[in-house]
Design brief:
With 136 residues, the chain is mainly alpha-helical. Helix content is 68%, strand content 0%.
Length: 136
């Protein structure tokens, strides 16, 4: 990946905070600033628009909303239909309609999992213990 040099003029208190964090982590101020920017700027380039849209606003949610997002699950009927189509697919080739339905359900599953994962990561970055999410 190409890198580009950028000059940023930081207020002294902000620079001092970054410097302290970098010292505590035994890193350079540049590395610390790069991590801050990487965590704030969503890296969704290359994702389909619907998945990018699902992830785009999570960073600004409060903790309660992030916990709800991290615990989101597929509706039971969607999970059951997805499982049913997988069983059918093992027995025979899916029809065109079934194949399209399976693709749509898988996209819904992927969206749910991506939102859960991103929300969990944000909660962890905010200092929360997310072990309970791993057990769910």
């Amino acid at each position: 990946m190409a890198a580009h040099a950028v000059t940023v003029h930081l207020p002294s208190p902000l620079y001092d905070q970054l410097r302290r964090q970098a010292e505590d982590a035994h890193r350079s101020v540049e590395a610390e600033l790069l991590d801050v920017v990487a965590n704030v700027v969503p890296m969704t380039a290359g994702l389909p628009d619907d998945l990018e849209a699902a992830l785009s606003g999570l960073e600004i949610l409060d903790d309660d909303a992030l916990w709800r997002a991290a615990r989101t699950t597929l509706p039971e009927e969607v999970s059951e239909r997805l499982e049913e189509l997988h069983f059918v697919e093992r027995r025979r080739e899916l029809t065109e309609a079934e194949s399209g339905e399976l693709s749509a359900l898988l996209r819904q599953y992927e969206r749910t999992m991506l939102v859960r994962a991103r929300a969990a990561r944000l909660l962890k970055e905010r200092g929360h213990d997310i072990d309970s999410l791993i057990r769910e």
